[in-house]
Amino acid sequence: MTNRLTCSLLVFFLVLILGCQKMQAKKNQEELSLNRGTMPAKEDPTLGLQSQQARGEQHVLILAVRFPDVEPSFPLERIRRKVVQGLNKYVREQSYGLAWVNADFRGWIMLPDPIGRYEVSPYNFKVDRTRVKKLIEDSMTAIEPKADFSRYQHIIVIPGAFTTPGKGYGMICYCANPGMLSGVRRNIRYVPMESKKGQTFRGGVCVAAENAHLGMFAHDFFHALGGIHKDKRLVP
Predict the structure, then answer these.
(1) Taking each helix axis from N to C terminus, what angle separates 87-94 and 214-226, rounded to the nearest 10 degrees?
(2) What pLDDT is stored for residue 224 in this prediction?
């Protein structure tokens, strides 16, 4: 009887300890997510303010998405090489080895609505933010059964539509977070994105059409990479 009671107590305390560990891990992950993009900048006497979050390995989820009424113009493998191998090489070279990209590439991912529901203006200050939000959240929802968004620091969404200003997706490339979703003139912030089942992402988000050049990808990715300091986007 005593041995059975002892075993029961041991099992109870073991379950309790494991439960506490899981709760703490979840809390730590939430704190990491909340603090993402708001790490303090470091003042360099020559270069000025330097982003501290732009160093080291950057975990990036890359989603090549397509619309039910548009056929992509580029093979998926060509896009993958550009944004996985090409972007990582570019970031390593430009940072002198201080930063690199660990990419998780997914595609093609079918979106639920035709391109007209997502298309945006080619002019920054005329972009409908609700459409930007819809593109990102629909992309997240499409893969949420197979993705844990808390694992990533940044997301890149690639619409599979050949785009020029005002045609295709409408804008070739932009940084959504921090940027298009909150605006860049004042009150710049990371706007939380949420999938249909409630997964939240608070990191950097970029959108670049399939035909965007590598330099365009890098330019807007660097906005996300740098983060925010005193209501301004930092250069990495």
Answers:
(1) 60
(2) 87
